[in-house]
């Protein structure tokens, strides 16, 4: 068995990955089938992630996040001793580099409703950078909603939070229909287990085994279309590339111990009675500029 690393002085080792299906409930009447169980047991050097993990996708290095950084096409990801590390840094051309990856389609990558869980840590603050792990519409239409958890700035002391962005109308996916902010700092160096539970008309955020708040129920604002799970790091969402910018000397890592996902075997009445809304008169579908800009399909190259 592989040992789980990351147990620096004062820090617990990385948590073990859960395996097996989950029991039935009102939505998943025949239970939740585990469709992704990735604990990163194949080591790889920088630049080799997409080869070592077939089917995974990384945002291309030509895309920016629309704000303060560029993605890096998986080129600053390494895996060693069961831990994936995303390196955040400024390259030789002055571009801050981050990573966004997503699991293969059919393994939590593209589905309607699901449970998604990761174990991650940020060993130290990385000023100017942040994370937004999210569910984003397969249609790439932000008017259909968005679910973010964990989301946090990597400035010192900033908390882990979760958000449900409302379904159109009014058609501005940046609006928050629901938010929960924890008292746990994202950059405290500890391992944290974060789970999204997306059950038709309900969303819950779980941090280290405890639900944040009471959860959110809505027959309008909870997305009910296929979503893609994206594990994203990016520059902070304020300022521009030049102002305030990111100090080129700043560097740091986000580490992942595992990623798991579940899909409902069959959907029962627990999905809720939904009010379907579309783009509506005068509302064009939005594109994923908050989470990467560019043209063409994402491919695993």
Sum this structure up briefly:
This protein has about 300 residues and is an all-beta fold. The protein is about 0% helix and about 35% strand.
- Measured by DSSP, the beta-strand proportion falls in 35-45%
Q: Which of globular, elongated, flat, extended, rod-shaped describes the shape?
A: globular
Tell me about the biggest sheet?
Answer: 11 strands, mixed
Report the uncertain regions.
269-301
Helicity, as a percent range: under 10%
Instruction: Report the span from N to C terminus.
Output: 30 Å
The number of helical segments is 1
Mean pLDDT rating: 83
Question: How many strands?
Answer: 18
Rg from Cα: 18 Å
What is the string of SSEs from the N terminus onward?
EHEEEEEEEEEEEEEEEEE
Specify the structural class.
Answer: mainly beta
Textual characterization of the structure:
The protein has 301 residues and is mainly β. It is 1% helix and 37% strand. The chain is built from one helix and 18 strands. The strands form two sheets. Strands 1, 3, 4, 5, 6, 8, 13, 14, 15, 16 and 18 form an eleven-stranded mixed β-sheet that branches.
List keywords for this structure.
mainly beta; 11-stranded mixed beta sheet; 7-stranded antiparallel beta sheet; 1% helix
How are the SSEs placed, and which strands pair?
Elements: E1 32-38, H1 49-52, E2 57-58, E3 70-71, E4 77-80, E5 83-90, E6 96-98, E7 100-102, E8 114-121, E9 129-137, E10 146-153, E11 159-165, E12 176-185, E13 192-198, E14 202-207, E15 210-211, E16 216-217, E17 227-235, E18 252-264
Parallel strand pairs: 3-6
Antiparallel strand pairs: 1-18, 2-7, 4-5, 5-6, 5-18, 7-17, 8-13, 8-18, 9-10, 9-17, 10-11, 11-12, 13-14, 14-15, 14-16
């Amino acid at each position: 068995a592989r040992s789980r690393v990351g147990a620096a002085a004062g820090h617990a080792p990385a948590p073990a990955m859960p395996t097996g299906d989950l029991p039935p409930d009102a939505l998943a009447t025949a239970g939740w089938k585990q469709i992704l169980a990735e604990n990163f047991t194949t080591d790889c050097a920088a630049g080799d992630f997409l080869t070592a993990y077939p089917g995974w996708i990384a945002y291309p290095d030509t895309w920016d996040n629309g704000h303060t950084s560029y993605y890096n096409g998986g080129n600053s990801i390494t895996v060693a001793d069961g831990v994936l590390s995303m390196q955040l840094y400024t390259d030789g051309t002055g571009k801050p580099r981050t990573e966004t990856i997503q699991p293969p389609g059919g393994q939590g990558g593209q589905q309607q409703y699901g449970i998604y869980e990761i174990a991650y840590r940020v060993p130290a603050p990385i000023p100017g950078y942040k994370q937004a792990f999210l569910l984003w519409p397969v249609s790439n239409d932000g008017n259909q909603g968005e679910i973010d958890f964990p989301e946090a700035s990597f400035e010192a002391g900033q908390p882990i939070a979760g958000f449900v962005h409302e379904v159109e109308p009014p058609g501005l996916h940046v609006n928050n229909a629901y938010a929960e902010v924890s008292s746990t700092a994202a950059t405290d160096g500890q391992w944290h287990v974060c789970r999204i539970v997306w059950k038709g008309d309900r969303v819950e955020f779980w941090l280290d085994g405890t639900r944040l708040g009471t959860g959110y129920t809505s027959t309008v604002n909870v997305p009910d279309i296929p979503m893609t799970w994206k594990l994203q790091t990016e520059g902070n969402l304020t300022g521009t590339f030049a102002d305030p910018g990111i100090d080129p000397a700043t560097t740091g890592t986000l580490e992942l111990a595992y990623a798991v996902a579940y899909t409902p075997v069959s959907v029962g009445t627990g999905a809720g009675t939904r009010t379907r809304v579309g783009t509506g008169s005068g509302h064009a579908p939005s594109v994923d500029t908050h989470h990467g800009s560019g043209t063409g399909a994402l491919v695993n190259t």
